[in-house]
Design brief:
Radius of gyration: 20 Å
Shape: elongated
Order of helices and strands: HHHHHHHHHHHHHH
Distance between the termini: 34 Å
Helix content: 55-70%
Largest sheet: none
Number of helices: 14
Number of strands: 0
Length: 273
């Protein structure tokens, strides 16, 4: 059986745990946690297609183990000194790594979402996210709106203004798919968002969410998650990713006690940008 580091090489093309997690060797605990979160979202089994689920599960397990090493002061120091890790029981088949992820990133309330949205929109973080996704998507506005946290179709004019300013300042390339997007695609996008908004409103009313108090910070996401589970569109799946990103922002110190159980949110399968 291959060693843990050999599996890292096989699955992530590197035996360096910092490279696997996508963080610098000088990263602090919060940066390590953020790196684990971002990589785990890419390979979470619940978000993988059926034909990719087995590989995603292996990668997800490896990431969990890497984080358990780099987030532990003594284990990290030992790895930094020797470049080695203990292979014994490195992947505990009895351990629920999804539950481990949920413990580290507990679920958030609707009040948290509102607070985060108010802080995030118009922030430097949002601008950097917009820039990164614009470049990776080569200016595809559909992908941009589906990827930016808290975004709606109403944000498109604001995003375009920001991106045009970046193009003017030579911060990013002027992609044809952005500056020369055809009218048909724009209209199709607006129609899709309008249809989804109507569907979400109908489901919210059906699930009794419509009249919930907006300032109820103790309200959990069970109703909202039920709504999301009833929608099988890509946009519904995107919301799962949005919720998970909020969990990373507002997650507590979960996972400090061995065997602790965190509440999990069941999500629809197959989420992918």
């Amino acid at each position: 059986m291959p060693s843990f580091l050999e599996l890292c090489q096989e699955l992530f093309d590197s035996k360096d745990l910092y490279v696997v997690l996508g963080v610098d060797k000088k990263a602090d605990n919060q940066q390590v946690k953020k790196g684990y979160y971002k990589k785990s979202l890419l390979y979470h089994p619940d978000r993988a297609k059926d034909n990719e689920k087995e590989l995603a599960t292996k990668k997800f397990q490896i990431l969990g183990k890497v984080y358990s090493i780099l987030s532990d002061k003594e284990k990290r120091a030992a790895y930094d000194d020797t470049g080695c890790v203990e292979d014994e029981d490195f992947i505990d088949q009895e351990r629920d790594w999804s539950e481990y992820f949920r413990i580290i990133f507990p679920k958030v309330s609707l009040g948290d979402i509102k607070k985060f949205e108010e802080k995030y929109k118009g922030s430097e973080e949002e601008r950097e996210d917009l820039k990164e996704i614009y470049i990776s998507s080569k200016g595809d506005m559909d992908i941009i709106l589906d990827s930016i946290m808290c975004s709606t179709i109403d944000d498109e004019p604001r995003y375009r203004e920001i991106l045009l300013d970046m193009i003017k300042k030579n911060e990013v390339e002027d992609f044809k798919s952005f500056s020369r997007e055809n009218k048909k695609k724009k209209e199709s996008r607006r129609k899709r968002y309008a249809d989804e908004a109507l569907e979400a409103e109908e489901l919210a009313e059906e699930l009794g969410l419509k009249k919930k108090k907006e300032d109820d910070n103790d309200e959990d996401l069970s109703g909202l998650q039920a709504l999301i589970q009833q929608r099988q569109s890509d946009r519904g799946k995107q919301m799962n990713g949005f919720i998970e990103q909020l969990e990373a922002k507002y997650g507590g110190k979960g996972g400090s006690k061995t065997g602790a159980k965190g509440k999990s949110i069941r999500r629809g399968k197959g989420k992918k940008n």
